[in-house]
Amino acid sequence: MKILVVGGGGREHAIIKKLRENPSVHKIYVLPGNGGIARDAACVPIKATDIAGIVDFAVKKDVDYAVVAPDDPLVLGAVDALEAVGVPCFGPRANAAIIEGSKVFSKNLMKKYGIPTAAYETFDDMEAALSYAESAPLPTVIKADGLALGKGVTIARTRQEARDAITEAMRDRKFGRSGERIVIEEFLSGPEVSVLAFTDGETLVPMVSSMDHKCAFDGDKGPNTGGMGTIAPNPYYTADIAEQCMETIFMPTIRAMKAEGRPFKGCLYFGLMLTADGPKVIEYNCRFGDPETQVVLPLLTSDLLTVMQAVTEGRLAQTEVVFSDRNAACIVMASQGYPVAYEKGFEISIPEAAMPHVYVAGAAQDGDKLVTSGGRVLGVTAVADTLQDAVDEAYRITETISFQNAFYRRDIGARALKAKEN
Ligand code: AMP
Ligand code: GLY
Fold it and tell me: Are residues 203 and 299 in the same domain?
């Protein structure tokens, strides 16, 4: 089989490595991929948002199956366009990807179908938003409606921060058209859990839960990032909570999307907060999370391609999806200065023994060298019987990899390990 994967980060690398375990996969193209993924798939310099280019390439190479991993091509309709030329795909169509593409849509969906989430108001008028924010309880949470590279959320602790976030989004258009509308919502607190789920629009199978570490520095300090590391499973996500989420959040969401004429097929990501009032949805993503995928897929013992095809063909109910009961940890190695400003072009040295553990996010080939080309450079995943062993092993391997200006958090998994003690 010839498979096309759209995207080019650590998540795509994890998907590709897993797909390669299936012996019927003899060729994987990745658009655009990156210098590190090039070891495992043929990188093609077509941007993930170039829908016409992706479709042309798929037709020209006569690919048998496509996996669209990032949010923007999904929201732009990459799956619709590939299906229109007869390429079966993993991923939601645009009318379902809106669950991530518009926070106004997802909040209204949750309200309409009684799915627990933070109380909120939506605004398309800046004056009305500013006036509402003057009396909203602090902290208050301000979210741009559309995709904003993970930067569209502000937790405002003062009135001035709230005013600034609203004017930057709505007047200054910091996130372009994504800030034309905003959501202002209640601040929730509690442990956060990420749950990715396979769904064919009728059946939903949650994957093993995980915990992201979004802040740049140890102790959850510093600016928000795309994610500095993950562990799975998440110890806060007990069997009781999982059951509750299935009943009050997961299945109601799948049924709601179907009832709206927007059946969701693919990987639906539930960003949850376990509040004192029970689990609530913080956000939906219409795709695999990054770097959650780098701990979740290594624990999948079933064949990924088989599961993906079952999703595409609506056969998930008859398909076995099994996860190991082991633990995984992923440490993200970034460039000093990320997420603000950082230098690129430093040679990366990865011992051969570390390669099976590495998912490359931001690297380019420079002759026969691999050099840094992004803020998050790579992730290192280890799997072990206990979380402590997985974390220790991931750090041990991380220390064998080097590039100038490398930095990583030293406390990935620390909170989860503490939670396990209690
Ligand atoms: P998002 O970009 O939607 O993932 O939001 C980024 C982060 O902001 C989340 O991971 C949460 O930590 C935090 N966040 C979002 N919404 C809320 C909320 N209503 N209350 C508290 N924290 C929130
Ligand atoms: N790790 C969070 C995300 O993928 O959006």
Answer: yes
Q: Are 387 and 413 in contact (CB under 8 A)?
A: yes
**Cα→Cα distances 355→40, 162, 260, 350, Å:** 11, 45, 45, 7
pLDDT tens readout for residues 154-194: 999 999 999 999 999 999 999 988 989 999 999 999 999 99
Q: Distance of CA 130 to CAs 122, 154, 165, 166, Å?
A: 12, 14, 10, 7
**Is the full-model pTM beyond 0.85?**
yes
Residue 389 beta carbon below 6 angstroms from any ligand 1 atom: no
Q: Hey, how many other C-beta atoms are within 10 angstroms of the C-beta on 375? A: 21
Cβ atoms 361, 377 nearer than 8 A:
yes
229 lines ligand 2 (CB under 6 A): no
14 CA from centroid of ligand 2 (Å): 14
Per-residue model confidence as pLDDT tens digits over 94-128: 999 999 999 999 999 999 999 999 999 999 999 99
Q: Is residue 114 part of a domain?
A: no
Domain that holds residue 38: 2-91
Q: Are residues 308 and 402 in the same domain?
A: no
